[in-house]
């Protein structure tokens, strides 16, 4: 068994379990901890380092989740063999190809990918405890497919949360749970059927949603943006009766639609006998000003479909999203036999999330993550302003987990990304968000910050400055 001795810094801003996890991971990668050796038991290591068992357990669970160790029943945790030769033959890659790839592709040290979240602050110990509780309470029920709309208890918790946090007016019967917003939009596309006048979308807008609509055979009308969001007059001119929109944090530009324009959009829905699809994908994270009520909460005519997800606040891998339908569409869902569709989210995960919400952990976790992401966002913005100043323009800094950066150095999107990669930094294109990518701004990139540490954000901005301005 390995003897682990290290000094944990209790004054550091990093949690003790994260320090322990990084220490073990580093020693596995550099070979100091040999493959197939056993880690100390949770009890013995917690006693040896004078830390809680929960701290050790959380570090071990993260190592397990990332594949650095494996659990052997009634034996313990063992270091995985990460050498290429240890992989099954079907997964072995040509050594020459691998060496060439390493030479051709620089190592990415700072990945500013939008969609990554801060997994280190996920409450692993609490989630595992509630998972075990769910198993004990619902052993036989968990073997079933579950309610096709989603478990009633979880839908009730979601309804209560949405009402208190976003003003959404709904009953649990109006909520459908599914494995991601794209899946739910596929269901919704079936409900709205043959749309002769097509469906309107913000341009630029979320390309993942545009792809869903295209796969469903819907004709898409791109609607340009104004400084405060969707261009309502252009929406009228499109003759569409359905619009998909991200009013609380426009994707990707980040503007928040003001109350006056929300009322104009609701009037459009009444005038056109239309439907608004409101995607509230990251409304929990707003850093400037007070939150504006959701469109659904202002809609007295039942013309708004409301979408939300747990991917940004918890983990994307949980694959839990929800859709709130107007009453007429709930009835349509029933008549069209959509209840014959099996539920796509694990019965077990739904029950665990229900317990997580009902015991107060969800709102506590949101409060914690707001502080975490606010600090990361502040670090990113202040470092960019300090290093690059007037050489760049920051867009969409009031909310969410990403910004857009317009860079004034003469480089286009492709060149900005390529030069950043040479410095070990990955930033992302914005052109896919336009219906016609050639119409996209040419000197802009997307920068997500959710999955990076404060230190990596700081060092990553230094590297971007070197890449783009040569200093």
Summarize the topology.
Layout: H1 16-29, H2 42-49, H3 53-65, E1 69-72, E2 76-79, H4 95-104, E3 110-111, H5 124-137, H6 152-166, E4 175-178, H7 181-192, E5 199-203, H8 207-215, E6 220-226, E7 229-230, H9 232-238, E8 242-245, H10 259-271, E9 275-279, H11 295-298, E10 304-309, E11 321-324, H12 327-335, H13 347-358, H14 361-388, E12 392-395, E13 402-407, H15 413-422, E14 425-426, E15 428-429, E16 444-448, H16 454-469
Parallel strand pairs: 3-14, 5-6, 5-8, 8-9, 9-10
Antiparallel strand pairs: 1-2, 4-11, 6-7, 10-11, 12-13, 13-16, 15-16
Can you describe this structure?
Helix 7 (181-192) packs parallel to helix 8 (207-215). Mean pLDDT is 86; it is low at 84-104. Helices cover 41% and strands 14% of the residues. The protein has 3 domains: 16-104, Arc Repressor Mutant, subunit A; 110-121 and 364-469, Aspartate Aminotransferase, domain 1; 139-359, Type I PLP-dependent aspartate aminotransferase-like (Major domain) (Aspartate Aminotransferase, domain 2). The protein is of the alpha/beta class.
Number of helices: 16
CATH architecture of the largest domain: 3-Layer(aba) Sandwich
**What spatial order of strands do you see in the largest sheet?**
4-11-10-9-8-5-6-7
Strand elements, count: 16
For the terminal residues, how far apart are their CA atoms? Answer: 48 Å
State the CATH superfamily name of the largest domain: Type I PLP-dependent aspartate aminotransferase-like (Major domain)
Structural class: alpha/beta
Average pLDDT taken over every residue:
86
Task: Estimate the strand proportion.
Answer: 5-15%
